[in-house]
């Protein structure tokens, strides 16, 4: 059964990748024909308009991949609530990309979507799984807590999307970690969903980072789907209906710390940015250039290395949690260590680089000299990959390229 399940999971992931690669040129053509592009302005980092329907292609691959697993596994599709909620968020995000929605309108729909997942599945974050000695607790507390956390995650992934490959790279790594968690729990339906989610993002990431003619942004539609999926995984991991996770040791892992570590860069970067805006008397949804990726770009670091740096930071936070668990530390200590490492790396990196920039230090000039080497767009291997990806789009039937 295990060998068959592995084959089903791998086949579903391949289907997700192939589906995105097949539909990507068609979605790109529609975006260009309808002028659905993200245009440069004072806070955006691209130099020319870029199509923004990447999220539509990714969602198509996610759907086909999960349907493939449901067919092969011979069972019902167990993730209907999240797929319905993600469909709503995809539609809302596309409306936002095309016409612009007010923050309050988006917030209301996000609350409805998370509430739909809660009551559609009958699960929510109603247990801390031993953190501070707390097990399960009443839904009168759990439902508002889950909605608050879910909406926060949706906005965190939306706000962190600022450089090529960042949000998609963070979600690919998060999906891989979560697929492992669900595999250990023998929750193969959720494992397939996480795996297909990450797989569907791979073709998009390649075009987004390396493509020129084939480059497309994931858009608000894509980032809102990302946040919705991660919110669902949070519910699945932290629901009191699910068993605790054991990784071959007697001590219990802190599941709250695990979820925080997996989403550490989006969550802690957004917390810092929104807190700063409130202190300045601004709306927390007011757009500016105070994210971690902005300070990397100001320093002269390329988009690809900026994204890679933040993904590495996120991975180190996950590793810090895992090491604290494997060392036999208690649940509370795992939580505190995860929070401290996340703050030190996410906030510490921002404030360190910002200090160098403000005071024009010698360290800043040294970092700027190093940053020049991070621009890889003129490397032969980069240009070959770029040409290959652009040809895949131009040769696709029906693209008109």
Q: What is the fold's blueprint, element by element?
A:
Elements: H1 2-33, E1 37-38, E2 50-51, H2 54-73, H3 80-98, H4 103-121, H5 139-159, H6 166-184, H7 188-210, H8 219-238, H9 255-262, H10 264-279, H11 292-299, H12 303-326, H13 331-359, H14 362-371, H15 380-394
Helix pairs in contact: 1-2, 1-7, 2-7, 2-8, 3-4, 3-8, 4-5, 4-8, 5-8, 5-10, 6-7, 6-8, 6-12, 9-12, 9-13, 10-13, 11-12, 11-13, 12-13
Q: Uncertain runs with pLDDT below 50, 5 residues or more? A: none
* Number of DSSP helical runs: 15
The helix/strand series, from N terminus to C terminus, equals HEEHHHHHHHHHHHHHH
Indicate the proportion of strand residues: under 5%
Rg, rounded, reads 21 Å
Nearest-integer average pLDDT: 90
Please outline the major beta sheet.
Answer: 2 strands, antiparallel
Describe the protein's architecture and organization.
- With 401 residues, this protein is mainly alpha-helical.
- It contains 15 helices and 2 strands.
- It has helices spanning 2-33, 54-73, 80-98, 103-121, 139-159, 166-184, 188-210, 219-238, 255-262, 264-279, 292-299, 303-326, 331-359, 362-371, 380-394; strands at 37-38, 50-51.
- Strands 1-2 form a two-stranded antiparallel ribbon.
- The longest helix has 32 residues, at 2-33.
- The mean pLDDT is 90.
Name its key features.
mainly alpha; 401 residues; globular; two-stranded antiparallel ribbon
